[in-house]
Design a protein that fits this description.
Order of helices and strands: EHEEHHEHEHHHHHEEHEEHEH
Low-confidence stretches: 178-190, 323-328
Radius of gyration: 21 Å
Shape: globular
C-alpha cells in the first residue's frame, strides 16, 4: 500500500481546519493532493522507506495526530494507487483503515462485488445505463467485452471504466492548492492549479443555486487567472454530497482561456453531465488546471459583438477589483 485517501470528519462549521490537517499530512510526504472540503490523497512511498513502516501503519499515526492536535477523527483508505485508495475509503471506518491488497488477484477480489458507482467519476447516468444491461457490479463490468461497453457508454469512457474495473490504476497524486474558501495558486512539486470552492450553508437541492455557485466560482477563477496573466487548458468540477461521497468531471477546453464566460459555459456543461436528480449537494469546487502564460495562448476570433462586449466589460471589472478589492463586482454581473 503506497497511497492513502483520508477524509477528516469535520463538523460543517470547522472546515477551515483543513489547511492545518493537510500540513499534518505534509509532515510525512510533500505529495499531498487536497480534496476539499474535508479530504486528501497522500503518496506515502517515500515515507514508507524513510520511516520503515507500511502505509497502513503510517495511517494509524496520522489518525492519532489528527485527534491529538485537532480533535478530529478521520477515515482512511489505502491502496496501490489513488483510485483504489478512494474505493477503499468507502468501506473505511474510524479507527480502522480499509486496504486494497497489492496483488492483482487480491485487487480483483476486492473490486468484484462492489457497485459500479464505487468508482470515482462514475455518475448516475452512466451507472443507470450499465445497470439496465445487468452490469451493476465492477466484477461484471470487468468481465464484459470492451466492445460491448463501448456501444453502451462510448469508446473513451468504456476504455477507462474497463481498466478501472480490472484494477488498473493509472492515476497519480498531484500536489495542489486547498481552496478554502477562496482560490489560491500552488506549484510546489506538481503542476500549478487554481481552485475555487463554493460550500453551501446547508445541503442544497436547488439546481438554480448550484448554477449560481458555479457562476460565482467561474468568475472568481477567471479574475484570478487574468490577474496572474495565466490561462487554463483544463477545468475540473467536483460535487461533494451530503453522504460525503463526491463526483468529479474534467473537461479540456477548446483553447486555453481566462475568459469567465467560457469557463462558466464549460462548468455548466460538466454540471449537466452529472445528471443530478434532486441531489443534496454540500459543496461545489472548480479547478483550473494546465495553466500557462497568457501571452503564449492563441485566441480564436469569433467576430461575435456580444462576446467582444463581455471581454471589454471583464477588463473594466478587473480594473475595479484592482482598485476597490475582489468584492467590488457582484457575482453574476458579467453574465451575458
Amino acid at each position: 500500500m503506497t497511497i492513502v485517501c483520508v477524509r477528516f470528519q469535520l463538523p460543517q462549521a470547522y472546515e477551515a481546519a483543513l489547511p492545518g490537517l493537510l500540513g499534518l499530512l505534509e509532515e510525512f510526504t510533500p505529495v499531498v493532493e487536497a480534496l476539499p472540503p474535508d479530504g486528501a490523497l497522500a503518496d506515502l512511498r517515500g515515507a514508507e522507506r524513510y520511516f520503515g513502516r507500511s502505509a497502513v501503519e503510517l495511517a494509524a499515526v496520522i489518525r492519532v495526530r489528527a485527534l491529538a492536535l485537532y480533535g478530529v477523527d478521520c477515515v482512511i483508505g489505502a491502496g496501490p494507487g489513488p483510485m483504489l485508495a478512494r474505493v477503499a475509503l468507502r468501506d473505511a471506518r474510524p479507527g480502522l483503515t480499509c486496504e486494497v491488497p497489492g496483488d492483482p488477484d487480491g485487487i480483483a477480489e476486492f473490486l468484484a462485488d462492489r457497485p459500479v458507482t464505487a468508482l470515482p467519476g462514475v455518475g448516475t447516468a452512466t451507472a443507470r445505463t450499465l445497470c439496465e444491461y445487468g452490469l451493476d457490479t465492477l466484477g461484471r463490468v470487468a468481465a464484459a467485452p470492451l466492445s460491448t461497453l463501448q456501444r453502451l457508454i462510448g469508446a473513451k469512457t468504456a476504455r477507462e471504466l474497463h481498466e478501472k474495473a480490472n484494477g488498473i490504476d493509472r492515476g497519480r497524486v498531484v500536489p495542489n492548492a486547498v481552496s478554502l474558501p477562496h482560490s489560491r495558486l500552488r506549484s510546489s512539486g506538481g503542476t500549478p492549479i487554481l481552485a475555487a470552492e463554493r460550500p453551501f450553508t446547508r445541503d442544497e437541492l436547488s439546481p438554480d443555486r448550484h448554477r449560481r455557485a458555479l457562476l460565482s466560482a467561474a468568475e472568481e477563477l477567471g479574475a484570478r487567472l487574468r490577474a496572474l496573466d495565466k490561462v487554463c487548458g483544463t477545468l475540473t468540477l467536483t460535487a461533494r454530497y451530503a453522504d460525503r461521497t463526491a463526483t468529479t468531471r474534467t473537461r479540456t477546453l477548446k483553447e486555453p482561456t481566462a475568459h469567465s464566460a467560457a469557463l462558466t459555459r464549460t462548468a455548466y456543461d460538466m454540471y449537466e453531465s452529472l445528471g443530478l436528480q434532486r441531489a443534496r449537494v454540500r459543496a461545489l469546487t472548480l479547478r483550473a488546471e494546465s495553466l500557462g502564460p497568457a501571452e503564449q495562448a492563441s485566441y480564436q476570433l469569433t467576430f461575435d459583438p456580444v462576446d467582444e462586449k463581455v471581454r471589454r466589460i471583464e477588463e473594466a471589472a478587473d480594473r475595479v477589483r484592482a482598485k476597490f478589492g475582489p468584492g467590488a463586482v457582484r457575482p453574476g454581473a458579467l453574465a451575458a
